[in-house]
Amino acid sequence: MIMNDPIADMLTRIRNAQVAKHDTVMIPASNTKKAIAKILYDEGYIKGYEKIEDGVQGQIKLTIKYLSGKSQPVIAGLKRISKPGLRVYADVSDLPKVLGGLGIAIISTSKGLMTDRAARKENLGGEVMAYIW
Predict the structure, then answer these.
(1) How far is CA 59 from CA 29, 94, 123, in A?
(2) What three-state secondary structure class fits 59?
(3) Per-residue model confidence as pLDDT tens digits over 48-73
(4) Which of 15, 46, 47, 119 could potentially form a cystine with 107 if both were Cys, beta carbons 3.0 to 4.6 Å apart?
């Protein structure tokens, strides 16, 4: 299957799994997706993640986090910002604040993927990959 935007596919799989109230979601693995999963875990948006080797590309198994039982997921929204057809870059002074700081923006910097807060702390700008809130 040809996929033009694997990051958007990952965010869509997470969104669809939450709507269907699944506990886990499987995503084709890549280093960028692992870095995004690590950020989501570190920020408390998912319960956990693990890479599963299948001999080819591998899979990432994300465990979705819900607030009370399975009534409401922790992630209220996911939005892809920079797309293959239109890249969005921001200087450190122009880094976005999602919902006034309640959400996170995932930024691709020269030192790897990080949140907008970490990028401000490191004084780095970069490509604005996605918003999570």
Answers:
(1) 5, 35, 33
(2) strand
(3) 999 999 888 999 999 999 998 778 99
(4) 119
44: left (phi over 0), alpha (psi -120 to 50) or beta: left
CB 93 within 8 A of CB 60: no
What is each CA distance from 38 to 34, 42, 87, 88, in whole angstroms?
6, 6, 23, 22
Q: Do 33 and 25 meet the contact criterion of CB atoms below 8 Å apart?
A: no
3-class DSSP state for residue 129?
strand
**Tokens read off for 106:** 């995932």
Residues 6+ apart with CB under 8 A from 65: 44, 45, 46, 47, 73, 74, 75
| 8 A C-beta contact, residue 131 and residue 96 | yes
Q: How far apart are CA 78 and CA 130, in angstroms?
A: 7
The SS3 assignment for 1 reads coil
